[in-house]
């Protein structure tokens, strides 16, 4: 094993406030607990969820944190209690940290871990940087899949497992009934990066009828290539009415909601059939746009929330392995980390599907 | 088969407006479609859901309808297309009508039937009367269970299947996992008639830990007798904090919400653990008291809605048969239908657990 020297300072992307991302020099992270590891970042991406903070829709408890929750790299240092990894290992990391020991971690709900933090937030520095500290390294890291390029592997930190979860929530709702899965009509709201992962997962997992609504033509083209039926919301007056027309007045059997605003959730509610299901993966920040009587009368059920990537990694990866070739060019723009501020603006304006950073070290 | 003579007029309870129920003479219903049947009512009850209209919380589209959706009786007349029932048959009826032919009926979702109506509402006259018309009789009626007294059988029209459904929603959420069912901690909000059915069903079905919150001491006593742990909300400052104390800070694994107002739903949300489940059976009439970010961060899932009694009748009845002896004195007050106006007031003031009407014919 080579001896790895870690410099005292590093370059990193730091969140200063809405529309204010700074490329700057900061202290390199150090082991703080015996369960920590330090990674040298080799690949790092920008996720749509980060735009909620960038746009000011969600205001973090404090600024001055290092951004980024999708990254992989090489272990350069581990604490005394890290058993499964050692310096030199190529690894990817889940977008959240989790302890591996609490009731939630043990029950397959790692995103509900009592000490879970999201990388690249006020609670935990992220990986749009040269180095990152990983708490509970044994429960956050996975070996980098053999033969997989690092940019493709970035999708396994968050967005592919999240897309898979959106589908699996619906599978659980129909108790994995193959007849439902094959014949149900799904409406997906949002064809951004997670949305495209969701379509690919759904089609691979046996969903035959999936409509996808978005406003960005390039996304809709990719959605179609992956096997969805595109709906351009600028060309359809009313998505709910459109879905009713396509289903003999019934409505979609289930909704995959990946947008994360009240308008999308209302469209989901209006488009789903009676006793239907909404799998909501979107990061919301507004009051729920339905009232209780509507929910009662429509016999609706909704699953919200963050993906427990750690807990479902193996199941999601089984699907990803089969179709990862579809994602080899998914990251369509690479920019130097020094241009991180521009990168956020480019991504916010839908000028790239998915951006990865070149970490200049 | 005896010839049965039906008079031209009958006595009935008619909804005139909030706090205004009138005992009056109306025309006796007649066969309107070849799928109809006419029942002579032998037993009829008052359900908590009717109090939403009585109190003015929910305003019907029009007044002047016959109230009551829990009843059983004897078939006195059938249309030409009714195959399974004939005059003289003793039957009970589901609290909704359903066609039996649409996608929802065929998919086990009879409460979402495209032509479903609730008896005793502006949409369909009910059974607090001497006679009632049953649309789609083959899909609304069941033979009266042999050896079961009529007042006990009243519980199978709505409240026992509804309580059973509340439990079964949770069973589905945990994919019928016996370990979860036996060990999970449930908080139930509401110990009214449906709530007591829900407790009895849950305990019979394998739920071991069920806390029940209510404000009425007599209900809490009955809840305890049926195997729940009572929480008097007048004696506990904060139900959510109380549940956290009882679960090592985690919160309840699932909530059975049977109250039907925003306060109860908020208590449900605050009391449930991360990634927990709310089975909401309550008939709501207010905005949802959570915002989207809370739902996302808590990874919550919620099932709302009305019980498809027709679709789940056999499953619920299997449980009811085993424990129906516990319900033989459940109806603790019988009043003449002529005193229906008083009966609503008595029920609204929690002066009786469950009221049945003596139909004086």
Automatic annotation (TrEMBL), chains A, B:
Stored CDD domains: FDH_like_2
Cofactor(s) the protein needs: Zn(2+)
SUPFAM superfamilies: GroES-like (SSF50129), NAD(P)-binding Rossmann-fold domains (SSF51735)
GO molecular function: oxidoreductase activity; zinc ion binding
Domain Alcohol dehydrogenase-like N-terminal residues, every copy: 34-145
Keywords tagged on the record: Metal-binding, Oxidoreductase, Zinc
Residue ranges of every copy of the Alcohol dehydrogenase-like C-terminal domain listed in the record: 193-305
PANTHER family: DEHYDROGENASE, ZINC-CONTAINING, PUTATIVE (AFU_ORTHOLOGUE AFUA_2G02810)-RELATED, ZINC-TYPE ALCOHOL DEHYDROGENASE-LIKE
Similarity comment: family membership: Belongs to the zinc-containing alcohol dehydrogenase family.
Record-given protein name: GroES-like protein
Upper taxonomic lineage: Eukaryota, Fungi, Dikarya, Ascomycota, Saccharomycotina
């Amino acid at each position: 094993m080579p001896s790895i020297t870690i410099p005292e300072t590093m370059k990193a992307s730091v969140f200063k406030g809405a529309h204010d991302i700074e490329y700057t020099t900061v202290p390199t992270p150090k082991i703080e607990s015996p369960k920590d590891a330090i990674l040298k970042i080799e690949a790092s991406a920008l996720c749509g969820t980060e735009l909620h903070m960038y746009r000011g829709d969600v205001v973090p408890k404090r600024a001055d944190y290092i951004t980024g929750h999708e990254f992989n790299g090489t272990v350069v240092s581990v604490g005394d209690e890290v058993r499964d990894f050692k310096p030199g290992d190529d690894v990817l990391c889940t977008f959240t940290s989790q302890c591996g020991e609490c009731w939630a971690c043990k029950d397959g709900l790692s995103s509900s871990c009592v000490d879970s933090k999201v990388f690249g937030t006020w609670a935990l520095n992220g990986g749009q940087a040269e180095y990152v500290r990983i708490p509970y390294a044994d429960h956050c890291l996975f070996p980098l899949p053999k033969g997989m390029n690092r940019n493709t592997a970035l999708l396994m930190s968050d967005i592919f497992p999240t897309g898979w979860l959106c589908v699996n929530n619906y599978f659980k709702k129909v108790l994995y009934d193959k007849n439902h899965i094959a014949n149900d009509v799904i409406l997906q709201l949002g064809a951004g990066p997670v949305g495209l992962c969701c379509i690919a997962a759904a089609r691979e997992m046996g969903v035959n009828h999936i409509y996808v609504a978005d406003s960005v033509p390039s996304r809709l083209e990719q959605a179609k290539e992956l096997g969805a039926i595109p709906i351009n919301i600028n060309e359809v007056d009313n998505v709910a009415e459109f879905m009713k027309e396509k289903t003999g007045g019934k409505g979609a059997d289930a909704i995959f909601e990946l947008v994360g605003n009240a308008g999308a959730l209302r469209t989901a509610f209006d488009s789903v059939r009676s006793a239907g299901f909404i799998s909501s993966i979107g990061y919301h920040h507004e009051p729920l746009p339905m009232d209780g009587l509507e929910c009662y009368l429509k016999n609706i059920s909704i699953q919200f929330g963050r993906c427990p990537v750690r807990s479902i990694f193996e199941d999601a990866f089984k699907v990803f392995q089969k179709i990862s070739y579809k994602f080899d060019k998914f990251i369509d723009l690479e920019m130097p980390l020094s241009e991180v501020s521009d990168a956020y603006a480019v991504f916010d304006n839908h000028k790239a599907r998915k951006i990865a950073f070149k970490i200049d070290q």
